[in-house]
Amino acid sequence: MTDGRMQAKARIRELVDQISHHDTKYFVEDSPEISDYEYDMLVKELRDLESRYPDLVLPESPTQRVSGKPLEEFPQVEHKVSMLSLGNSYSPDELKEFDARVHKLLGPGERVEYVVELKIDGLGIALLYEDGVLTRGATRGDGRVGEDVTSNVRTIRSIPLRLKPEGGLRNCEVRGEVYMPTDGLRRLNKEREAAGEPLFANPRNAAAGSIRQLDPRIAASRPLDAYFYTLSYTEGRMPSTHEECLERMRLSGLRTSPHTRKFGSMEKVLEHIASWESKRDGIGYEIDGIVIKVNSISQQERLGYTSKDPRWAIAFKYPPKQMTTRLVDIQVQVGRTGALTPVALLDPVQIGGVTVTHATLHNEDEVARKDLRIGDMVLVERAGEVIPQVVKPILDKRTGSERKFKMPVKCPVCGSDAVREEDEAVRRCVNASCPAQVMERLTHFCSRDAMDIEGVGPALVAQLVDNGLVKRASDLYRLSPSDLKDLEGIAEKSSRNILDAIHASLDRDLARVIFALGIRHVGWTTAAALAGSFGSMERLEDASEEELSKTEGIGKVVGESVRDFFANSENRRLVEELRRAGLRMEAPKSRAGPLEGKVFLFTGELKSMGRSEAESLVSSSGGKVGSSVTKATDYVVVGENPGSKLAKARQMDKKVIDEDAFLRLVGKK
Ligand SMILES: [Zn+2]
Predict the structure, then answer these.
(1) 443 CA distance to ligand 1 centroid (A)?
(2) Quick one: pLDDT at residue 136?
(3) Beta 599-603 vs 635-638: how paired, if at all?
(4) Where do the structural domains in the chain lie, given as residue ranges?
(5) Which CATH superfamily is domain 3-64 in?
(6) Which of helix, strand or coil describes residue 553?
(7) Which end of the chain is more exposed for a tag (fewer CB within 10 A), N or C?
(8) Cα 350–Cα 352–Cα 356 angle in degrees, nearest 5
(9) What would the pLDDT profile of 20-32 be if each residue is shown by its tens digit?
(10) 337 CA distance to ligand 1 centroid (A)?
């Protein structure tokens, strides 16, 4: 080995260890020791060395989190120790019975301690570490055989690729829950809505759907996190208590919950459960119950298992946020991409403090699978502050007068054929100039996160389309005062404001223009990634599928969708007309902005702009946007109705600023 090569090898080892250490500090312990800039410099140095010496890349290198090609399917793997489910309980009485059974089996007078954990609504996962290095991540599956999702598990930044030696775990298997925080889900759903994709019904589906993505790059783009709660196997001595297992996992760099408590009696456990019922909405992720475990491992072993559950642990489930109401009708909406979506119209009902009148039914298969009929009494659920769902019909309440729903095969708006392609759950109106689609596309184009044309909402768009003034987005830029003069309810002054607002949108950046085009699967973040890596609309238009798939954050599906969009001559014509109208088709040259390296956090609603616009202002000025208050946070921007982050920010003595101050910082005021 040459000297340079030896030095590189040693330095790579050093950098991997340092970066892993900082990852734990940042993602697991919420207490970073260095600035994001210093961190980025370490990663950059590592990447440079690795590209010069590709054969020296370590498997646990943080640069290898997203790696490997998309899979055809997930290999099946057998668990080292079966992953059993827990028995469920729904009332204090059932827990008292559980406690009595434990005491009876262990013998009278024996002291029992219970460790009590939050039950997160996510996806169970088992990680295998060999010589301290993460070698396998698997889903629970049927408990005996699960799916090997290692390449996706590696993309979760809070999961250590190598365990820290402090915990004394080298060859072991640990279990935990992969979940999607509420904020992340809300953002992802918003993005999916904008990209014309179906929304996730709840955090569990979102986590499961993300970890089961065949393309690790997609999994990497999803806001996933994980907590660990079981040491199922370790080489050498097993700790004597569950509490110690948790502590050793924590010392090894695995993220463990700060809300775990230990109690000496079931009475105390019940008080704790009661106190969490009201607290559970404010912790940033969805929990559906509490898990109670006997602390002593030797007691656990003596208690053993029934045919399906351990006798030393039980889950307590909180009542779900569900209500019954009548399904009055099923309406069919036509979206921007022509997708027909059945929507449940409900008798208004209060669920968790919110009046629910509509619920999504996703697609026709879903309606058929649940056997929902118009007129049914139905169970409706709201989970994780997401859109309400119809869970099932109440069959006992059926009178025989209910009607089956049939998905129309013609578009309910324009009457064209609505076609369902193979491998698709969705039926789409084939008519690209379908008024419903045109309306939705234009409304999307003008929306706050896209071209942000104030005053041009769904109502005005409908008027413009109905009067034949606008057929496509580029027509907006040709409108004259006389065009608007005859529209109902538009005074001269407001027509001038509308034209000014349209004109002002010429100033929007390339990312917004790309997003505004409404390409399927291209949400806001994707649009920003495309603008960043291609730099101009022209280059994006001519990008090959291969170039697209090499772009960071862009998967195969998105790449194909972008290709398809620009392969269509109508779409190319639209882009050409927008170019002639004077829209920005180039990304600004990057430069160090005034907020270089500063970390911002937003809570509450801003008056003058949407969240994504505010975030893009931060990033275009060189700053970064965080998702929770940490030591690295520099500014917390508070809008109306701020959430719990404000209290945390005050507690941590962070610089809290209002919207005006923020606008001044980014030079908008
Ligand atoms: Zn149509």
Answers:
(1) 16
(2) 94
(3) parallel
(4) 3-64, 87-317, 322-404, 435-507, 510-581, 599-665
(5) Helix hairpin bin (1.10.287.610)
(6) coil
(7) N
(8) 40
(9) 888 888 888 777 8
(10) 10
Say how many Å lie between the CA of residue 376 and the centre of ligand 1: 29
CA-based end-to-end distance of the chain: 59
Q: In this structure, what is the dihedral angle of CA atoms 365, 366, 370, 372, given to the nearest 10 degrees?
A: -90
Burial 184-218 (b: 16+ CB within 10 A, else e): bbbbbbbbbbbbbbbbbbbbbbbbbbbbebbbbbb
Rounded to the nearest angstrom, the gap between the alpha carbon of residue 186 and the centroid of all alpha carbons in its chain is 7
Could you tell me which residues are beta bridge partners of residue 120? 287
- Sign of torsion, CA 610 612 613 614? positive
Enclosing H/E stretch for 175: strand 172-179
Distance 410 CA to ligand 1 centre (A): 8
Share of the chain above pLDDT 90, in %: 46
Q: How far is the CA of 341 from the centre of ligand 1 (A)?
A: 12
Q: Do domains 435-507 and 510-581 have the same CATH topology?
A: yes
Q: Would you state the pLDDT for residue 521? A: 85
Cα 178 to middle of ligand 1, angstroms: 40
State the Cα–Cα distance between residues 159 and 154, nearest whole angstrom: 7
**Sequence-ordered strand ranges (E) for 79-122:** 87-89, 114-120
CA of 421 to the centre of ligand 1 (A): 16
Residues 6+ positions from 347 with CB-CB distance below 8 Å: 325, 326, 328
Instruction: Give residues whose Cβ lies within 5 Å of ion ligand 1.
Output: 411, 413-414, 416, 429, 431, 434
pLDDT digits (tens, 9 = 90+) for 221-236: 888 999 999 999 999 8
Give, in words, the CATH class of 322-404: mainly beta
Q: Is the pLDDT of residue 216 over 70?
A: yes
Q: Are 530 and 554 in contact (CB under 8 A)?
A: yes
Report the catalytic residues: 119
- CA–centroid distance, 391 to ligand 1, in Å, is 29
- Closest-CA residue to 157 (of 224, 71, 245, 84): 224
Centre of ligand 1 to C-alpha 431, Å, is 6
Question: What is the whole-number distance in angstroms between the Cα of residue 426 and the centre of ligand 1?
Answer: 14
Task: Give CA–CA dist 224/516, Å, rounded.
Answer: 27
More confident residue, 12 or 200: 12
User: What's the helix, strand, coil split of the chain in %, to 5?
Assistant: 40, 20, 40
Report the relative pairing of strands 389-393 and 377-381 from DSSP bridges.
antiparallel
Looking at domain 87-317, its CATH architecture is 2-Layer Sandwich (3.30)
Residues 648, 366: Cα–Cα separation, whole Å: 41
Indicate the burial class of 404 (C-beta count within 10 angstroms; 0-12, 13-18, 19 or more): exposed
pLDDT value at position 384? 58
Ligand 1 centroid to Cα of residue 434, in Å, is 4
CA nearest to 494, candidates 454, 462, 464: 454
Per-residue pLDDT tens over the stretch 596-637: 778 888 888 888 887 778 887 887 777 778 777 887 888 889
Res. 529: pLDDT tops 80: yes
Q: Which CATH architecture is the domain 599-665 placed in?
A: 3-Layer(aba) Sandwich (3.40)
Cβ proximity of 416 and 334 under 8 Å = no
Return the residue matching tokens 């598990």.
Answer: 153
Determine the average pLDDT of the residues in 519-535: 86
Is 510-581 in CATH node 3.90.180.10?
no
Q: How far is CA 27 from CA 156, 253, 255, 609, in A?
A: 10, 10, 8, 29
Question: Amino acid letter at 553?
Answer: G
Mean pLDDT of all residues belonging to the chain = 88
pTM of the model: 0.64
The CA angle 423-425-428, to the nearest 5 degrees, is 100
**What does the pLDDT read at residue 383?**
66
CATH superfamily of 435-507: 5' to 3' exonuclease, C-terminal subdomain (1.10.150.20)
